[in-house]
Amino acid sequence: MYFSKSLVALAIVASGFAAVAGKTNAKNRKCTFYCRGQGVCAVVLERDPVGAPSVTTVQRANPTDNFEDFYNCVDTHTTTNFCCSPDGFPLPIIGTTRTIRGDLVDRKCREPTDQDPHLPAGCR
Predict the structure, then answer these.
(1) How far is Cα 60 from Cα 80, in angstroms, rounded to an integer?
(2) Is 81 inside any structural domain?
(3) pLDDT of 40-66, one tens digit each?
(4) pTM of the predicted structure, to 2 decimals
(5) Which N-terminal stretch is annotated as signal sequence (predicted)?
(6) Is residue 115 part of a domain?
């Protein structure tokens, strides 16, 4: 009886490690969008009376291993991907966020488009 409980506990711990490893793997290897500038993940916090973003939280997108200029927003809790000018506004270090005025994103960033290179087959 004690052995079976230990075995169940060990299986639960092992599956937790596998889930964390899978998320880290996706964070480093998944290509979601292409960007020659700086890949950015964002979420709008506030909008002005006409609906334009007035306060936005941004963070650096996760660079994808072995695929230069491809990024993803895995595990960032954001809603939008952007490609921003490298000198558009100071970005925080990877894994942290910064709150900025929404007009900075409008002026210094664009959403990735279908004209960007297609995602490489080995980067899914």
Answers:
(1) 12
(2) yes
(3) 999 999 999 999 999 999 999 999 999
(4) 0.74
(5) 1-22
(6) no
